[in-house]
Amino acid sequence: MKILDGKALACKLEIHIQEEVRELNKNFIYPTLAVILVGDDPASASYVKMKSKACERVGMNTLTFAMPSETREERLLEKIAKLNEDEKIDGILVQLPLPKHINTSKILAAICPQKDVDGFHALNVGRATLGFECFIPATPLGVMHLLSEYEINLRGKDCVVVGASNIVGKPLATLLLNAGATVSVCHIDTKDVSLYTKMADIVFVGVGKPNLITADMIKEGAIVVDIGINRLENGKLVGDVDFENVAPKCSFITPVPGGVGPMTIATLLQNTLQSAKTKLKR
Fold this sequence. Notes:
The structure is a single chain. This protein has a six-stranded parallel beta sheet. It has a three-stranded parallel beta sheet with strand order 3-2-4, sandwiched between helices. A two-stranded antiparallel ribbon has the order 9-10. Helix 2 (42-58) links the parallel strand 2 (32-38) and strand 3 (61-67). The relative contact order is 0.17. It has two domains: 28-112, Rossmann fold (3-Layer(aba) Sandwich); 138-260, Rossmann fold (3-Layer(aba) Sandwich). Helix 2 crosses helix 10 and helix 6 (138-149) crosses helix 10. The chain is of the alpha/beta class. Helix content is 41%, strand content 17%.
């Protein structure tokens, strides 16, 4: 069994990004990410802080706009419109989830596709489906980078994605399909998830439920990518996989923490860098 070390790969990617940022600086281009945080959700605030620190590590600018939870939808749309027009801003990220009175789909659609470094805009989703160049959501892209780093060939592999969210499950399934894998997607209405996972060469899971994937659900030699992150009552961070019992059966497995999480941050930086580099063509 080998660990898919996302933390080590993320560090490697950050070094490369830092070098590219320095080259852009020589051309008076300073990559800048704008993050909008609505409300006071502790988890969201923590994620925003992590993203800001990552930007600092690679020499990117980051601007955080904290707005109260009672912020009106119209006010948020006005802020996004201003950031869309600001040429200094390369990437715009609205931290999810948003308060219930705000239409998330409407907000994501308002972000300029060329600054949508989260890859959630319908235009980017469509281009990703067709295999065109675009911004791809950070977590699925991070997973693909991780598999590539360990030379895991997806062509012809039987893959199962457990979880069908617009942020992770659906875009990940698209990337796997485009890479030549045979893909099954399980979700809350799937009758028996184990029927799919037992046959899979690679299992991807990200639903936010500790110990969802157990040893009896995985075949010998399978690869398991745990995208879930959960905090137990004792404060410990765990994924969706019963790591202790599943790991011995795997050829590769991601740990939590230290697996997909760091890759999500690194690929967000990559997307922001990609946006900034378009200025070289102007």
